[in-house]
Amino acid sequence: xxxxxxxxxxxxxxxxxxxxxxxxxxxxxxxxxxxxxxxxxxxxxxxxxxxxxxxxxxxxxxxxxxxxxxxxxxxxxxxxxxxxxxxxxxxxxxxxxxxxxxxxxxxxxxxxxxxxxxxxxxxxxxxxxxxxxxxxxxxxxxxxxxx
Length: 147
Prior knowledge:
Mean pLDDT: 76
Low-confidence stretches: 116-147
Number of helices: 7
């Protein structure tokens, strides 16, 4: 049984600010949910009995079996399919030092492998490494010209 509060919560995820605040995203449809289920943490699955029988091993915090009528009330689509799921948005940590070293290595590889482009200006590159947070600025200072 699907409660009115769950329906309101799912409908509220139509707005980007609510999805961002809750740090979730909504997926509807057999293929999309099936593809995402193993790659993202799932908070909620609303599915018909038939879909749940076809997918017995689900890793979700909460699984609710619903009828087509209940699913159509909760869905954001005009013609909902057999499943609707709410997944947590992934979080990635950004390390500026690692990024700058990777960017410098990418520049060196690109410079070695480039046959049609040649650097016109090498300002900002002194020595064999690129300092911390200036990597992106230094990379954008290089102007390329066609040979």
